[in-house]
Amino acid sequence: MITWRRIGLKDYVFPDIKEYTKEYLKNINNIPVDVKLNKITECANNAENHKFDISEVPALGKEFTSFVESSYNSGISIYLPQNIKLKSPIRLEFNMDDKNPTVVDHNIIIAEPNSEVTIVIDYNSDNKTKTFHNGFTKVYAKEDSIVNIVKIQRINDHSYNFDSNIALVKERAIVNWISIELGSSISGSNYSSILQDMASESNLHSIYLGDGTRKMDLGYTMIHKGPKSLSTIETKGVLKDKSKKIFRGDLNFKRGARHSKGSEEEYVILLDPTVKSDSIPALLCDEDDVEGDHAVSAGKIDESKLFYLMSRGLSEKESKKLIVEASFKPIIEKIPYEDLQKVISHEVERRLING
Amino acid sequence: MENKLLSINNLKVNIEDKEILKGLNLEINKGEIHIIMGPNGGGKSTLAYSLMGHPQYKIIDGEIVLEGKSINELTADKRAKNGIFLSFQYPEEIPGVTVEEFLRTAKTSVSGEVQKIMAFKKLLKEKMIQLEMKEEYAARYLNLGFSGGEKKKNEILQMSILEPKLAILDETDSGLDVDAIRIVADGVNKFIDESRAILVITHYNKLLEYIKPDYVHILIDGKIIKTGGIELAEEIDKNGYENIKAKFSN
């Protein structure tokens, strides 16, 4: 049983996990033969899984991650050989419904030196089924590799969503996370990167939208171990109605991470006085010679901007919508599929206009 | 009289309980260019914001009447739809929205007609050429990283696209070099016709070398204390406000 007060879970028991029967791997054309891409449920053994140690990062917590490791019903295992750069992204879509109400996906991504891959995972559902998602994604980015992970969560408002993501980043490798959080009644999502070696880099860009009574816990951690390692966290959010959000961003500079740089920034727009927004940015330093910046700001929409837009004939609602959409746009544009960009923009629009 | 566009009757406006406009009267007819001059702190920008409907500028007394209807209670968007436009002294930067997208949205709101993309593009391009704006500005985020002069030109661009009945230019000429003033004045002169009017708030006479006003008003301490023709502006240019102020208080 899990109790997680911040998002209102008390004595919570995971539901029974059913088989996920739909096809979730959307494009597997043009993938070179020496790339090993498998559904995790079809892999004979997951030896690769144990090759790297990510135990120091708790992600959402052992209860969640162990559950995925023991009970997964979906996910991929991908192994990219040295120097292979995949031009088109690998795309997964989970669409939950009454026949497939649970997704527990376990994803393992191993990028050998100088390889490159982008993986886009879209989690969605029908409008009514009470669904459950708990995922665990592990990235091992070896020397000079680039791994981009894009996650879109737009599950219906009756559902629970939990997602843990961890990357181990080697010399000069880059791991970029993009997280779009739009749905579920309770959502816990965690992204952590361990910047293991010299000049390793990780960037996280996320947007979130809270409406209705949604409760969100967003935890982002950058652990700097290698010298000259770099990290960025950029989060933009909007809260309306009675939604609640906790943002935790940790920049953790370990001994040996000299000349490293990390920055984090969260900007949230509060549309109603009934929302609750907590932000806890933290800078932890064992090493002196590092640079860490954090900025968190929460506010109502800038009244001068609002007046400027309204003076051009846009109603108050339209003006607010435009300001929120504009702040989300640079992050949405990082998603490598136009159809998904549109889906997200429409979803944001719909949720901003309703209520 | 059907020519009458705007009447401001004994307007009193407070900002945070401080009275700024103290009973201001002004009549503007269609086809006219009015200039408002006055020292800092006299209430010029307050008048501009009050006409546009800024929520922090509270009307305590008096009335603003546009084409026979009081607009006191209307929010800024409704006033825009009724034909009022304000060229801001400090235009806001809106990252994430391009000039073209924004203007198309605004034109749709103000006119109530959906703007076809290609036709609008053409219109925008035309107006930008008139204002000697580089075409690339259409695709840039609204005012973001624009210089002072570019922001002001962009305001005039918006005015010429939205085609209001009453355009209020709040210090549009300040901070502009001579060439930019000429271009802005040119935009104003192209815009004015028998169906519209312009209210120009200014500090300087430079603009008046290019624009021929019908009336010049002096706004001091929340009231218009003197109205005249262009000779009034020339007098202020020579002698400043002190003379007029002194005469007025005697």
- Per the principal axes of the C-alpha atoms, what is the gross shape of chain B? globular
Strand content of chain A: 35-45%
Counting H and I runs of at least 4 residues, what is the number of helices of chain A? 4
Q: What CATH architecture of chain B would you give? A: 3-Layer(aba) Sandwich
Largest interface: A-B, 24 and 27 residues
Largest sheet of chain A: 10 strands, mixed
How are the strands ordered across the major sheet of chain B? 6-9-10-3-11-12
Order of helices and strands of chain B: EEEHEEHEEHHEHEHEEEHH
Number of helices of chain B: 8
Mean pLDDT of chain B: 92
What is the C-level CATH assignment of chain B? Alpha Beta
> How many extended strands of chain B?
12
Structural topology:
The complex is a heterodimer of chains A (355) and B (250).
Chain A: E1 2-4, E2 9-12, E3 36-39, H1 62-71, E4 76-80, E5 90-96, E6 102-103, E7 106-111, E8 116-125, E9 132-141, E10 146-154, E11 160-169, E12 174-181, E13 186-195, E14 201-210, E15 215-224, E16 230-239, E17 244-253, E18 260-270, E19 276-285, E20 290-299, H2 303-310, H3 316-332, H4 338-353
Helix pairs in contact in A: 2-3, 3-4
Chain B: E1 4-15, E2 18-29, E3 33-37, H1 44-52, E4 57-66, E5 69-70, H2 76-81, E6 84-87, E7 94-98, H3 99-111, H4 117-130, E8 141-142, H5 148-162, E9 166-170, H6 178-191, E10 197-201, E11 215-220, E12 223-228, H7 230-239, H8 242-249
Parallel strand pairs in B: 3-10, 3-11, 6-9, 9-10
Antiparallel strand pairs in B: 1-2, 1-4, 4-5, 7-8, 11-12
What do you see in this structure?
- The complex is a heterodimer of chains A (355) and B (250).
- Helices cover 14% and strands 45% of the residues of chain A.
- Chain A has 355 residues and is mainly beta.
- Chain A has one domain (2-353).
- In chain A, strands 3, 4, 6, 7, 9, 11, 13, 15, 17 and 19 form a ten-stranded mixed beta sheet that branches. An eight-stranded parallel beta sheet of chain A has the order 5-8-10-12-14-16-18-20, covered by helices on one side.
- In chain A, strand 1 (2-4) and strand 2 (9-12) form a beta hairpin.
- In chain A, helix 2 crosses helix 3 and helix 3 runs antiparallel to helix 4.
- The longest helix of chain A has 17 residues, at 316-332.
- Chain A is globular, with a radius of gyration of 20 Å.
- The two termini of chain A are 35 Å apart.
- Chain B has 250 residues and is an alpha/beta fold.
- Chain B has a single domain (4-239), classed as Rossmann fold.
- Chain B contains eight helices and twelve strands.
- Chain B has helices spanning 44-52, 76-81, 99-111, 117-130, 148-162, 178-191, 230-239, 242-249; strands at 4-15, 18-29, 33-37, 57-66, 69-70, 84-87, 94-98, 141-142, 166-170, 197-201, 215-220, 223-228.
- Chain B is globular and about 55 Å long.
- The chains are: A mainly beta (355), B alpha/beta (250).
- Chain B: This is Fe-S cluster assembly ATPase SufC.
- Chain B: Pfam families: ABC_tran (PF00005).
- Chain B: It comes from Wansuia hejianensis.
